Amino acid sequence: MHEVLGHRNDNDVQQYCKLMGIDDRNAISSKQCTTCAVTKSTRHSVSKHAERTQVPGERIHADIVDWTADSPTGKRYSLVIVDEGSKLLHAVHLNAKKDAVAAFQSFLRETKLPISPTTTALQTDSDAIFLGADFQAIVKKHLKQHQQSPPYTQAQNGIVERQVRTLSDMVRAMITGAGLDASYWSLACNHALHILNNMPRPSLHGKTPLQIVTGSLPKHVPQLHVFGQPAVVHISTQRGRLQPKGRRGIYVGHNSSSNSHLVYFADTNTVVSSIHVRFLPFSKADDVVDEAEEQVQTSTTSSMLQLPSARDSSNSTTDGAFTASSSDDTSLTEPASIKQALKSQQRKQWTQACLEEIGAMERNGVIKLIPRSVVPRQHTPLKSRLVFKVKRDAEGAPTRFKARWVAKGFSQRPGIDFDQTYAPTPAAKTILTVLAVSLQRQHQLHQLDFKSAYLQADLKEELYMELPPHFTDIGDGAQRYAGKVCRLLKPLYGLKQAGRAWAKKLHTFLKTNGWAQSNVDACLFTKLHDDGQRTWIITYVDDLIISGSSERHIRACKQQIKESFEAEDLGPLTCRTGTRKHQLDLVCYSDASFGTDQLTGRSTTGFTCYINGCLVSWSSRLQPTVALSTAEAEYMAISAAAQDVVFLRQLLMDLDEPEAGATKMLTDNQAAIAIGNDHVTKPRTKHIRVRHHFVRELIADGTIVLQHCPGTQMVADALTKALDKQTFEQHLPRLVGTSTAEAEQRKAVEGEC
What we know:
Layout: H1 10-20, H2 34-39, E1 59-66, E2 77-83, E3 89-94, H3 100-110, E4 121-124, H4 128-131, H5 133-142, E5 145-148, H6 158-177, H7 185-197, H8 209-214, E6 230-234, E7 246-255, E8 260-265, E9 270-274, E10 277-279, H9 286-289, E11 324-325, H10 327-330, H11 338-343, H12 347-363, E12 367-371, E13 384-392, E14 398-407, H13 428-440, E15 444-450, E16 463-465, E17 484-488, H14 498-512, E18 516-517, E19 524-528, E20 534-540, E21 543-548, H15 551-564, E22 567-572, E23 586-593, E24 604-611, E25 614-622, H16 630-654, E26 663-667, H17 670-677, H18 694-700, E27 704-708, H19 725-736, H20 740-752
């Protein structure tokens, strides 16, 4: 009857049976119904946290909030921290969730709460950021304990979850009431934090969170106003007689460090702090934000906002212990366009950077300014843009404002604006092989970096390009560019053929000066000197690695390159010292996992190649066709691995380091070895495609030799399937081969094989 009535509860079933006169003594209970258990499952009630502490700094709670909208400076997340004892709130706005680690470390370093590694506990959810090694290292150093609530049990982290809800409700209400869009959440969040930290709480016996921590109430606090209310900031410095005395913006909060008002200007995306503010009758803030006011180019007594953040909160008296970090609204950001650059606080610096970039292009012969009227009809000028970048020092402080002028290559027309575009880059296995051989031969390794590499190449096509949009709006220095377009004389960044043009010029220079280009990798060059010494070069776009046994030859090589190109000498590469051996050992491990792909039935190939214990090549991928047996899958894996072995042997020959004898290829399948060694057609192997018998040819000409390796020592096994923890940890150090002991262990295995 329980099922007949649609799995209703026991009480409803009893009432129905009583009404209809049905005997329900044999009816099953809903508690015994499996269907009900599966479909009506609910969460168990979660017991409350242990007794709440009343001591500030004894237990703190943290959570990461996704606001689902980017702020004007690109922030999307907030790290929210709540002190259980005082109810004090703290928030730092983040570009990405991973930034929460650094933000939490700064909070621990600068907060005035009594945080101690012997008394303070932390409660978070099970977010991957909080469980990561970097975050756990901070917790271990500064806190007593870290408790995590299981997934989907927000109640166990209820203190911060409830505060986040309160904060979200306030932010939503403030931006909606002010008529602002969601991107203003960061400004509203800062204001909400200030209000919450200064509100009396019943649980604190009428005291405010700030009062609990600092022991006193703030003095001389100016009157709060409605978030988003129109406001005019007085301009008291020198100005023209006919220029306005004030500047209009919207009120976004209170600056505790200076007891002043915070006013936001939408046209420059900046916040200023001032006591000289006049508030206008309230209206929707859209009217103020959308108003295109003429920018007032004077400084005011109101300083640009420097709210306490992770970098400077220790020097502030704001809120005593916690402050809403508004590094979001005052941090140095990189504008996406000239219009944004002109509206930023750093307008002057960005303007100078734009003029310097275009001027340098003109002086260095990259472009030639011409009137638009002289551009041939068959040529349509390409579009361009400026990419802005803030250069910083090791401590993150800005050192230079850089604007890079690039072409919008997607508008180029094939066959007219460009022909071929391919530019070679070295294979990873080439770089690793050169490094491994250099290590073994005790070569010195040096680096060169080409400055503005593409601009040092030659452009054969006739191309014209527009100036960046709004470039003539940046000031008087740009007026002379009005009505002009550019004839490109060098391959500017962004052109489809720029990379190819640079590679062609560099490679031609090297070959002209006696360097031999490798037949297997176009980015590898070798040179035999008169004294029998060899030097190798790897080119990687605008970077260059030089390897050689003679420092004299390396210096001569760098000097020769620097005489023809503008390049920076980055000095030597550091690496561990090797032991010189007469011969190099190239060894390959090959393995396969039969039929691992359940959808297609194909097997997985995995192989690793080592040169004297250094991993230089590896692969893990599905096989191209279905194998009908384990032996066939292993044989196909050997065929794939042999292709890399042939490449590496040819590479060693180009380096004048040929391998003596056949390369050992280790596999754990005896049947696959038999297929390769025996040219016999058998019923179970007659169907194997001829392409895989490439292995037999390599065995016949002495290129490779197949040898058996015990399955427990097959390092490539980790690349074919999921292993248990113990086996994986056994293979892991041998996969990367970073220590001498591990290399000796590998040699012992290869000797046994």
